[in-house]
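Quick one, C-alpha cells below:
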C-alpha cells in the first residue's frame, strides 16, 4: 500500500505533467487551421533581380448565375446612392471571372527553402477597404499578415464592419459617416476571411491574409499577374466564393529565373484545366510556428 507521502508525490507529478501538456498544446487545438505567424521566424528573403511572374486567366464554364438586384429600401441613403445595386457572387463577362483570389499556396524557392518558411518584408502602406455605395470596394482583397487594413466609409450613412475569421481575432466595429478610418491588422495567415456589415446584410467582402506578397485578384477580364516571384516550384491556388467555404483549385508551376509561368483556371460547370486539382472545402493557409515558439 502506498504511503501518504508517496501519494502526494504522485499527485504532484500528475499535475505538473498535465500543465506541461496544456502549455505545449494551447491555442485553438488541432483541426482549426490556427497558426502563429506574426511576421517573424524563418529565413528572410533577399531579392536577387532574377524574380519572375505568374500570370493567368480565370474562366467560367457553363451557365452563369444571374446577378440579383438588392433591396436597399431599409436605408434611404443606400437607395439614393446605389439605386441599382446588384449581387457580386459571380461577376462574369465574356466567359471570364472576376474576383477570384489567386496565390502561392506552397512550394520551394530555388536554392532556398519552403516559401511558407521564408519571411518577406511587410509593406508599410495600408490596404484600403472602402464602403462606397453600400457595398465593399474591393469585393475581394489580399493583405500580408501584420500589414495595416484601413477601412473607410465613403457613404452618407453608418456602417458596421464585422470580419468573421476562423484563426484570427474577430472584431465588430461601427463606423458612422464622416468617422475616421478604422485600422486593424491580422496576425495569422488565413484564406479567406468573410466580412459583413451587420446593418446592411447584403454587404460582404473577403480578405486573404498571407505571410508572403505573392497573391492577386482576377480583374474584370479574368486576368491576374503575381509579380516578384522568386525562381522555384510552386502550387498556385485560385479561390472563388460560393457555398459555405468557397471553392479552391490548385495547379503546379515552375517559375524560371526572370521567367513567367502560366496558371489558367476555370470555375463553374464542368470547367477544368490541365493538372488542376479541385477541393470543395477551402482550408486555411497555414504557416507553422518555429520550434520553441509559444502559442
Amino acid at each position: 500500500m502506498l504511503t501518504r507521502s508517496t501519494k502526494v508525490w504522485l499527485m504532484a507529478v500528475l499535475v505538473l505533467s498535465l500543465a506541461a501538456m496544456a502549455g505545449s498544446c494551447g491555442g485553438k487545438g488541432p483541426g482549426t487551421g490556427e497558426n502563429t505567424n506574426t511576421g517573424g521566424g524563418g529565413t528572410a528573403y533577399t531579392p536577387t533581380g532574377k524574380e519572375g511572374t505568374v500570370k493567368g486567366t480565370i474562366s467560367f464554364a457553363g451557365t452563369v448565375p444571374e446577378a440579383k438586384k438588392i433591396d436597399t429600401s431599409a436605408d434611404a441613403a443606400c437607395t439614393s446612392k446605389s439605386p441599382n445595386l446588384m449581387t457580386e457572387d459571380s461577376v462574369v463577362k465574356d466567359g471570364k471571372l472576376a474576383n477570384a483570389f489567386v496565390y502561392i499556396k506552397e512550394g520551394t524557392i530555388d536554392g532556398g527553402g519552403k516559401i511558407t518558411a521564408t519571411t518577406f518584408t511587410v509593406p508599410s502602406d495600408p490596404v484600403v477597404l472602402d464602403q462606397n455605395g453600400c457595398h465593399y470596394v474591393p469585393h475581394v482583397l489580399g493583405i500580408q499578415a501584420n500589414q495595416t487594413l484601413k477601412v473607410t466609409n465613403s457613404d452618407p450613412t453608418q456602417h458596421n464592419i464585422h470580419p468573421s475569421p476562423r484563426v484570427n481575432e474577430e472584431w465588430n466595429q461601427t463606423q458612422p459617416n464622416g468617422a475616421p478610418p478604422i485600422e486593424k491588422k491580422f496576425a495569422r495567415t488565413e484564406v479567406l476571411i468573410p466580412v459583413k456589415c451587420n446593418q446592411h446584410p447584403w454587404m460582404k467582402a473577403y480578405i486573404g491574409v498571407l505571410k508572403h506578397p505573392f497573391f492577386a485578384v482576377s480583374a474584370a477580364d479574368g486576368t491576374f499577374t503575381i509579380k516578384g516571384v522568386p525562381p522555384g516550384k510552386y502550387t498556385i491556388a485560385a479561390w472563388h466564393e460560393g457555398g459555405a467555404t468557397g471553392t479552391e483549385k490548385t495547379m503546379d508551376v515552375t517559375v524560371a529565373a526572370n521567367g513567367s509561368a502560366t496558371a489558367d483556371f476555370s470555375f463553374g460547370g464542368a470547367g477544368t484545366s490541365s493538372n488542376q486539382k479541385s477541393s470543395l472545402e477551402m482550408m486555411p493557409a497555414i504557416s507553422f510556428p518555429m520550434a520553441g515558439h509559444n502559442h
